[in-house]
Amino acid sequence: MPLLVALGAMKTMGHEILTLMHKEIIETIREFKSLGLFIGFCAVFFPMFLLFGTTQISAALIEDQISNQRGKIGVKGDIDLVRDVLKEKKELDISPLYDIEPVKSIEDDVYDIVVVVPDSKKTAAGEKPTIDVFYDSHSEGTISWAVEVAAAMSSSQMKMLRTKLKKVGVDSYSNTIPKINYKGISHVEISGAAPLSETLPTVILFFITTVAIGGAIGGITMERENKRLAQLLLLPIKRSSILYSLLLVVSAISLLPVLAGLFSLSWALSLDEIADRLKMHNLTVTVPPETILWILLLTVPIAISVTASSILFSCYYRIAQQARGYSLIYMVVLNGIVRYIITFKSLESILLYIPIVNSVYVMQQALDGKVTAFQIIIATLITLATSAWMIEAGAKKLSDEKLLVGVERAPKFQILGKGALINR
Amino acid sequence: MTIRAEGVKKWFYDRKRGEFPAVDDVSFECKKGEVFGLLGPNGAGKTTTLMIITTILKPDAGKVEVNGFDVATNPESARLNFGFVSADAALYDLLTPRETLEFVGKLSKYPKEKLAARIDELIKLLDMSSFADTRCQALSTGMKQRVAIARALVHDPPVVIMDEPTSGLDVPTMQSVYQLVRQCREMGKCVLFSTHIMSEAEKLCDRIGIINKGKVLAMGTLSELKEQYAKSDLEEIFLAVVGGIGGNENNGS
Questions:
Q1: Which residue of B has its CA nearest to A224?
Q2: Considering only residues 226 to 265 of chain A, which have any Cβ-Cβ distance to chain B shorter than 8 Å?
Q3: Which domains, from first to last, does chain A contain?
Q4: Nearest-Cα residue of chain A relative to residue B251
Q5: ipTM of this model?
Q6: Which of A177, A260, A375, B29 might form a disulfide with A43, Cβ 3.0–4.6 angstroms?
């Protein structure tokens, strides 16, 4: 019997939510102008926004980048040769690589780039000398350093390099141009989208927050101000149904600009001009289909959690103008905190369990090609559970007499004449 | 009994006055097929009383029942049994009156198969055919108020609560509201009608409760009140009960 009662209650609530959603959707469609403008804005600026970020997805930007950071270069083989070739690159810190494997040294963050120069003794006669450049293309700075190192070795200083190789014994084929192999390490080879992982999730978070907070203030605070919320509360429906319907509609709407932006971005990456320039540097930024799927899937928990927190925020304001004013602080704090927390490597073990942050983190992992089904499930479940909690907390505030009709209640504590505090 | 209020109290607070009673021991009953008028000056506590009955506010003391359901302990069932009309129509600007009625009807659990016919009936009854499919943002104040009344009646509730429903309306629209109140009475509904306009109360109400400073000071039929206060019309009775200027310096209603 209790099960039947619970099922009946769920059915009723589902009916309420669908009816409320239908109304919200009609209103959104009829007032599509502002949302349409925002979708257009995202479609135009999404790729540009990424270009202005720290991640370099354009070969042109990689070419132009002058890094102020010192890149750590490990050299296996003739270090003097590499130092000589790269003597103009003052920002590079070149040191010998002893017994560590090149790949491991990069994975362990000992070096950003490892250059393996051929050993004269081991280069067989007739064999074309090969210089291997290992780099971690997850780090955007490293990609550009790798390109710079390669450029230095491959073009203008090729002649000098040949002379140097001749000096160290690789002299049988002095007319042969040494081949340079770029070897991206680990995850880079799994996902070509890794260079986007630093910026894309936070850009998505930013745009979702912008739409979600607008939708939440419009759906709660403005409705309260216009007394339509009081009318709605007179109906025999659950308070949480009102918020769940708003959550579903606003979350879906907040995804529209992001989807437009992502399609626009993928179109930009497929442009021949950009693709050719990337290829010139043996760099390819492609987003594999499975990564696209993960990104799209993970935008859903991000949208739901951010919308739920925006709804909870809106439930605390009676006047829309006041809510809009504070919403700027809310946006800066939310986006800032998420961005800040994600950069802490020491927090990596718990990032998966922090609501909102975890979805952004897992999206970052997906772009790096390191995501697992466990991470996605945990992040989604935690985010959805927290969202449900925020909606229930917001539902309690809907009937708040002070917020709804401005009824003030006597403060619990009152300061009397000489500062004495009395408990009422 | 369809509305029963018993010793209802509600306290408000402001820094200047501290805590004060917005509704102070209000008790009344409103029966089936009766129009009960709650008459009082601005700030007398009428709206606060209605807000308690309609479950928007919780009483600090006392008990209110709507069609047998306690508004404090069983608010959802109470809400199924009343329709509320206020001076502020508060309609969804982007919906049409028909869509508004459909929305409210569905949420009020009105039988799905009968809803379309009920909406058509109300559109005809309230003479809304010419604007039933026009967005509410384009309607006049009178039209909006008619939609608000239809919204309160769409689920055919046994209790209709009206808070100054003619405020800001022109004379023909006011007349149509009066006609509708009478129709509700004929249909056997219990109508609680709050107003500060004497003529309205005189024309419409079977019984009147005069409220001031949160207290019900007088209650009865018009003839009973005339007899009790030895006055010939309601305005004189009202002034005798409430007092002249300064009689309404109470609270926010």
A1: B90
A2: 226-228, 230-231, 233-238
A3: 12-55+197-405 (no CATH), 59-190 (3.40.190)
A4: A407
A5: 0.90
A6: A260
